[in-house]
Design goal:
- The protein is built from 15 helices and no strands.
- It is mainly α and 284 residues long.
Length: 284
């Protein structure tokens, strides 16, 4: 349960936060380079898919892939062919994701666009208003992605670890940080988010849980859980929903970058007195 008085502190922090200043330090800057909603959707999914590790390392990889796809990532993927286009991405890899895994990610997105017409429709076919959050629909969408036959990429229908790393699922207990980040960008219509998906209420989103949000959430009493998993992400989101029932994820970007900036380490230190939330910390 959030401490009394925390809402006014967080709301002031949110209102005065310079979102545009931090934009270039965030993967959301990549889809902001496009204007067509179809291209924004694809660029956002690719940018969020690589959003693990340091932004200075993964963002150039995603940017190179998008640059290779030309002016319209959507049109490129719609007509994507392993035989014709694989060589364009030669040598591109990132940490756990080999070159073949990245090609297979593109191939799966191509198959999804051919089958569903958009990523939005691939999620919305599973979403129900009575769902507590987007977890069930997200799990079904991920299952659809992984049902694509990968033989054209790997020579046989397999799903190696480097490919599966792109597609965590709530059904397997993952935080699904990158998928929830993508959904925040698509659904929220404020600040730097795009709001181009209209069928999901903002309060059905789940927070993109990373180490920064985890530490700050423990500090502020949003969760007592110590494991970073789907249940913890939902619990933190429920705590934020008590502060803003309609748009609980409005705090996400500012809180995450508060951690990225080094202002919060998740442990009590002398300089914690300089933190905007010092008086509401719950860690001993």
């Amino acid at each position: 349960m959030p401490a009394p008085g925390l809402r006014s502190i967080l709301d002031r922090f949110y209102r005065t936060y310079d979102f545009r200043e931090r934009l270039l330090l965030d993967p959301i800057e990549l889809p902001h380079r496009y204007r067509d909603p179809r291209d924004i959707e694809i660029a956002a999914f690719l940018a969020s898919s690589f959003a693990y590790g340091k932004v200075g390392l993964f963002k150039p990889v995603a940017a190179k892939i998008l640059f290779t796809m030309g002016k319209s990532p959507h049109d490129f993927l719609l007509h994507f062919s392993i035989a014709r286009h694989a060589r364009l991405f030669d040598g591109i890899r990132y940490r756990f994701n080999r070159n073949e895994d990245i090609l297979c990610l593109l191939f799966i997105l191509h198959a999804t666009l051919k089958r569903e017409r958009s990523l939005e429709l691939s999620l919305m076919k599973h979403y129900q208003d009575r769902d507590e959050n987007t977890g069930n629909a997200l799990a079904a969408m991920i299952s659809g992605f992984l049902s694509v036959n990968t033989e054209k990429v790997y020579g046989r229908n397999v799903r190696p670890a480097g490919l599966l790393q792109f597609f965590p699922s709530p059904a397997r207990g993952s935080t699904c940080k990158r998928q929830n980040l993508f959904l925040r960008w698509m659904v929220r219509d404020r600040d730097i988010d795009f709001g181009i998906w209209k069928g999901i209420p903002k309060n059905k989103l789940v927070i993109p849980l990373d180490t920064h949000i985890m530490k700050i959430s423990q500090c502020l009493g949003f969760t007592k859980r110590t494991s970073a998993d789907w249940k913890t992400a939902v619990e933190i989101t429920e705590s934020l929903r008590k502060l803003d029932p309609e748009d609980p994820l409005k705090y996400d970007f500012a809180l995450c970058h508060h951690g990225i900036s080094g202002l919060c380490k998740g442990i009590r230190r002398e300089d914690c007195r300089e933190c905007a939330f010092h008086e509401h910390r719950t860690l001993g």
